[in-house]
Amino acid sequence: MDKRNERRSYGQSEMPDLISYLVAAGKIYGKGPVELDGLVYMLTNGDIDFDNWIIRRNEVLFDLYEKYRSNSFPNDFRMNSHGIYAPKDEEYVLSKERQNKWSTIQGTSQPGVGWIMTPSLDYFMVSPNAKSSHEVIEKYQNLAEKNSFLLPQIAKQLDIPATVYYRGIIRKGKDKRKVHLSKNFIGPEEIYLAGYGIVESKRRRDNKVPFKSVLDSTRRAMLEEESRRGILKEDTLARYEEIRRGLIKQTFFNKLTLNDDESNDTWGLIRGTDYRYRLAPLRCFEPSCGARATGYNGKGCHRTASNGYDDIQSFLLEFSKEDWFRDWIENSVLSIDLDKAFEDASRESMTSFSPKERDYYGEVFNKMLGKVRDVFELDYDHDEVTHIIRDHRRGKRLAKVKKQIRRVIGTDAEEQGR
User: Fold this and answer.
1) In angstroms, rounded to a whole number, what is the distance separating the alpha carbons of residues 6 and 76?
2) Which of 255, 281, 119 is nearest to 186 (CA)?
3) What does the pLDDT average to over 198-225?
4) Is 131 in the same domain as 175?
5) Most buried residue among 105, 142, 211, 288 by CB atoms closer than 10 A?
6) CA torsion angle for 94, 98, 99, 102 (degrees, to 10)?
7) Nearest to 161 by CA among 75, 278, 83, 8
8) Domain range spanning residue 399?
9) Nearest 5°: phi and psi at 270?
């Protein structure tokens, strides 16, 4: 019996299970409510007609159901020392319906490049890995790869929701494609609203992003959208305060990890099915810890404090009057356990770190946490910290001038030698 005739033999007693499964799978794949309603109507009011366009468009869901009801999931995800092996690539390609659903709405997008799922409806978001991404300069790609696995573990120590990445492999025939896979980022039927669709800016890719504009635009967008949905202003403002604190923590984390891309492309809000917004977890880790981003004329993109500076000390001063922030710095940030982060990343993402890599990350965090500790021990004294910032900037300018002088002297010496 061929596959289509086998499908026609579904008994009426199986219909409720079939329908509930197809609806759940369809939501993950990005099927719209009209299409799902049509599918349910077709299944509950007659035989399954495989010449009907609704059935044909959802054929992949029936394929998954057949594997599901067989109680053997040959294409389930599995992990070994090389990463997660994903289901067949054709399932991944079809899952792009969910990816493309909101592509025509300004400011909305689905992060990553697609979604894959198993017959048991376990699903992952697919993202390019560092070596296939165009966001990081090539010579930094190995470092960027490790950032994706280590930095989420540090973020979790700081009570910052973060996207945990796994090494993944998508197979199609004999070809294998290395990707990053992540779970629990955004639920079925939820919408991801990218930061560039929230912040009012004439240019999407400026080198500097005033952080105050991020907060103000987020508050305004939430109040306008949720009031149209009949959500009480008090409810919206309470959740905005949670999102505000989350954005402050995310931005501080970017400063701590020397993130080279703090643009409005790298953060966002998630609109739930009840039309209430929440902050999306951190997801952009690759251009950090010295790995440089490719855009912005080589200068990176950074959020600035009200004084126009983008350094971590200025950001600490900006929010030092808020008790929760000072408590968080003292009790969480200054207690980061880098060894634990290495262990968690090795266990969860099946990634190893060489002694040289561990030493490098140790140097980065010792340097940045040293700056945080200096501000903390000065009790966030504005004048003292500002003096330190100015001395540091003066030293950087002097080093740049000395470098230029050496270059000129070296050129003159070469000409004299000729």
Assistant:
1) 23
2) 281
3) 85
4) yes
5) 288
6) 140
7) 278
8) 391-418
9) -115, 125
Q: At what angle do helices 15-29 and 33-44 cross, to 10 degrees?
A: 170
Please, are residues 373 and 334 in contact by the beta-carbon 8 Å criterion? yes
Spatial distance between the Cα atoms of 214 and 251, rounded to a whole number of angstroms: 11
Q: Which of 62, 65, 22, 61 shows the shortest CA–CA distance to 41?
A: 22
Overall number of domains in the chain: 4
Length of the chain equals: 418
Is the predicted pLDDT of residue 350 greater than 90, yes or no? no
| Element of type H or E holding 56 | helix 53-57
Confidence of residue 4 (pLDDT cuts 50, 70, 90): very low
Contacts of 8 (CB under 8 A, 6+ apart): 47, 48, 50
> Contact, 319 vs 251, CB < 8 A?
no
Say what the pLDDT of residue 12 is.
Answer: 41
One-letter amino acid identity for 100?
Answer: N
What tokens appear for 160 in the block? 């910052």
* Predicted pLDDT of residue 390: 73
| Mean pLDDT, rounded, of the chain | 81
Say whether both 18 and 97 belong to one domain: no
* Within a domain: 147: no
CB 191 within 8 A of CB 271: yes
Share of the chain above pLDDT 90, in %: 39
pLDDT in tens, 226-279: 999 999 999 999 999 999 999 999 999 999 999 999 999 889 999 998 999 999
In this structure, the answer to whether residues 108 and 237 fall within a common structural domain is no
Is 395 within the bounds of a domain?
yes
User: Is residue 104 very low, low, confident or very high in pLDDT (cuts 50, 70, 90)?
Assistant: very low
Average the pLDDT over 286-298 and give the result. Answer: 81
Closest listed residue to residue 44, CA positions, set 14, 71, 65, 89: 14
The Cα–Cα gap between 288 and 360 comes to 13
